Amino acid sequence: MSTKPILFNTDMVRAILDGRKTVTRRVVKPQPKGPLVLTLPGGCWPGYFEEAGTSRVQRPPYCPGDILYVREAWAKQQGIYWHKAGLILDENGRDTHGTIAPAKWRPSIHMPREAARIFLRVTGVRVERLQDISMKDVRNEGIEYDIERPVASYGKFVELWDSTIRPGIRALYGWGGNPWVWVIEFERYEKSEAAP
């Protein structure tokens, strides 16, 4: 078991905090030319994924049992770490304790492990094409589901996905490119249980 960082934007951190997000997708890099087939020998369960018809293998970025600490928008003010997601401020920019919130937030990529407040345990890893996502997984991705308009919920996921891909690589990794993705399932993990 290892502890690794994982990045989420503010909306997805809120979805994790609300208990709505229990899965995430990450692009397989480099993209295989053919299907990826599970092969059991290798580093961690579920092992490596072999590119069909070749000797090339792809190892998932995370394995079941790994502990992930969530990197999110943050700030440090007077020795205290602040987290942007879920912060409730009044009209004067003060939190519920009356403390003035930081004026400048730092990007998640620079958040140190010691500032992390959310830890996740990976419970499953699989690989699939992006457009094979099920409606159940759309909900598990943290998308607010509209029972009256399920197609709209699906569209929200497509918009969310494409918003995370830079325009220059969207043709390859965006929804229209239908890339291979790692599907990483997780559950919340208490910070006190996470080894330093």
Overall description:
This protein has helices spanning 10-17, 135-140, 150-163, 170-173; strands at residues 3-7, 23-27, 36-39, 48-51, 57-58, 67-71, 74-77, 80-83, 119-129, 180-189. The protein is α+β, with helices and mostly antiparallel strands and 196 residues long. The strands form three sheets. The protein has a five-stranded mixed sheet, with no helix packed on it. Strands 3-4-5 form a three-stranded antiparallel sheet, with no helix packed on it. The protein has a two-stranded antiparallel ribbon with strand order 7-8. A hairpin with an 8-residue loop joins β3 and β4. The chain is globular and about 60 Å long. It starts with a strand and ends in a 7-residue tail after the last strand.
Q: Topology, pairings included?
A:
Blueprint: E1 3-7, H1 10-17, E2 23-27, E3 36-39, E4 48-51, E5 57-58, E6 67-71, E7 74-77, E8 80-83, E9 119-129, H2 135-140, H3 150-163, H4 170-173, E10 180-189
Parallel strand pairs: 1-6
Antiparallel strand pairs: 2-10, 3-4, 4-5, 6-9, 7-8, 9-10
Short structural description:
The chain has 196 residues and is of the alpha+beta class. Helix content is 16%, strand content 28%. The protein has four helices and ten strands, in the order E-H-E-E-E-E-E-E-E-E-H-H-H-E.
Task: Looking at this protein, list some descriptive labels.
three-stranded antiparallel β-sheet, alpha+beta, 16% helix, single chain, five-stranded mixed β-sheet, 196 residues, 10 strands
